[in-house]
Design a protein that fits this description.
heterodimer; A: mainly alpha; B: about 170 residues; mainly alpha
């Protein structure tokens, strides 16, 4: 973990929102939707490692 | 760290360049379609008024306007004068297929031009003129469509190129 991950996710969020605006302006709602979804998936893939470590910590805490 | 920065700059430059090329293609197409219509108009005059040979007319068109579009006509005339045994429509089709990649025209325009070439040199003056008029009318419709898509896509491709490059860099770093 680190502050890097948060910055990275924030940057992806900004970029995806700008891309969304550009695509909607030129009348391509479907592609705009797809880019939003792609951004979401990329961020989830980044975060999934951290979620796993969180679960492992909780498991260790309650001695499962 | 150093390599990462260099790599990011390369990715950003190449993706912006790609977007720029696509938007340039978008803005070139209506212009080239107009050019093509002008050349066909000229061909019509050459046939109806001057009654020139097809090769002479093609060479003259290339003389007047030297660009990617008139290169097709020149190439076709070259095939006709060289001893290749091709007839007018075959020479036109071959010249078209070789030169269409250098222009911004798409497959639909190519199909119109091929069907224009099919009739080339196969009827009397009246038929030829009608054929040219038909091709011009179809090209005019294509030009309108191209103009619409230019207004829609030109700015978008530029922005999309830069933004996609940035997204790639962020994901990869």
């Amino acid at each position: 973990m680190g502050i890097d991950l948060i910055f990275k996710i924030a940057a992806i969020g900004i970029l995806v929102s700008v891309l969304n605006q550009v695509l909607i302006r030129s009348g391509r709602e479907e592609q705009a939707m797809m880019t939003t979804l792609a951004g979401l998936v990329v961020v989830l893939l980044m975060v999934v490692k951290e979620i796993v470590s969180l679960f492992n910590t909780i498991k260790a805490m309650f001695n499962f | 760290m150093f390599f990462k920065i260099i790599g990011s700059i390369i990715i950003l430059l190449s993706s912006s360049f790609l977007g720029f090329i696509l938007s340039k293609d978008c803005s070139m197409r209506p212009q080239q379609l107009r050019e093509l219509q002008g050349l066909l108009q000229m061909l019509e005059n050459e046939i109806s008024y001057m009654a020139n040979l097809l090769t002479d007319a093609f060479y003259k068109m290339h003389e007047v306007r030297k660009n990617e579009i008139s290169l097709i006509f020149k190439q076709a005339a070259d095939y006709l004068t060289a001893d290749t045994g091709l007839n007018a429509s075959e020479a036109w089709e071959r010249a078209l297929k070789e030169n269409i990649k250098k222009t911004a025209l798409n497959e639909e325009d190519e199909k119109i031009l091929i069907s224009f070439g099919k009739m080339l040199g196969k009827s009397d003056v009246e038929g030829q003129l009608k054929n040219i008029k038909l091709a011009m009318k179809q090209l005019e419709i294509q030009e309108k469509k191209a103009e619409e898509s230019k207004a829609k896509n030109e700015a978008m491709y530029k922005r999309l190129g830069v933004l996609c490059g940035l997204a790639l860099i962020i994901i990869l770093v």
